[in-house]
Design a protein that fits this description.
Elements (H helix, E strand, L loop, with lengths): L2 H8 L1 H20 L5 E5 L3 E8 L12 H25 L5 H23 L3 E9 L2 E2 L5 H17 L3 H15 L5 H15 L1
Antiparallel strand pairs: 1-2, 2-3, 3-4
Helix pairs in contact: 2-4, 3-4, 4-5
Length: 194
Amino acid sequence: MSPWRKRLIWLLVPVLLVVVDQWTKALVRETIDQYDRIEVIEGFFRINHVQNKGAAFGLFSDLADGERELLLSTLGGIALMLVVFYSLRLPPHEWLSQLGLHMIFAGAIGNLVDRFTIGWVTDFLEFYWQQFRWPAFNVADSCIVLGVCLLLIDTFRPHRKRQADRAAEGAEEAGLSVSADKEIFEEREGSDVS
């Protein structure tokens, strides 16, 4: 399969996630009045319909209407360009980073769609325990957070191991045997540690 075909397959991730995000937000807007709450797990989790005009956790919500939309749209656009740029620079088989980047992309798109269509972001997932309350969020926010976590996990994977994985995958695609090369790499890796 060509690298561009693999990249097109990766686009299914944000398409699916944006559809789920927009569907859940529309469902909440249609069925739950603003600030109404539905207890799902008593004392821990509830659906709480909130209209968030700011960024995550209500950041920038105190700015004037025109300034806030301009700032958040600009920041969202810059984030999208960076994600696309970085994703295109990575090989499609770097699945952990690609998944993380495509989840961030989906989250940014999901919240930008809200800003452009209704003027605010619909948040509705709320976790709490006694006096502690985590600010309400949505599927798009979850995608962004999980995407960043996946990127961090991939960043802290041992660099040499990642290079060996890339070399092995490239050799396998070329139809070459790499088992002997992997054994040599693992022996060197062991001697570098001791």
